[in-house]
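User: Okay, second chain of the day. Same drill as before: sequence in, structure tokens out.
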Amino acid sequence: MSHPVTLSPAAITQIHSLLKENEMEGYALRLAIRGGGCSGYSYQLEFVEGPELEDDTEYAYEEVRVLVGAFKRDYLSGTVIDFEDSLMEAGFKIKNPNAKRACGCGESFDIDDKMGSAGASAY
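Assistant: Same drill. Structure tokens below.
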């Protein structure tokens, strides 16, 4: 099964660190898309114990478990999750080649309508 999302080495390192620091070893990173935000959709990253929805698919990246729900999974195809730490800011960056435009906040994006219908509010 092809992975819709890739984690950079920096993201993997940071996720391992966060899980250990918060005593959450064994938890998975859940990447979801929700309707809303300035540009139409927004990303949601959270740590969860395991699949929450029956259509969740689990992917493994160097012992980091990532869960992606079926909702708009095609919207994430080719997405890279990176972690950047600079003097100006630190945090996860989601680079999605399917986003036709993103909001200045970096957390909201829009997708070509040919991929699916807009306005949904679930994963």
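The domain at 5-111 is CATH 2.60.300.12 (Hypothetical Protein Aq_1857; Chain: A;).

User: Thanks, on to the next one.
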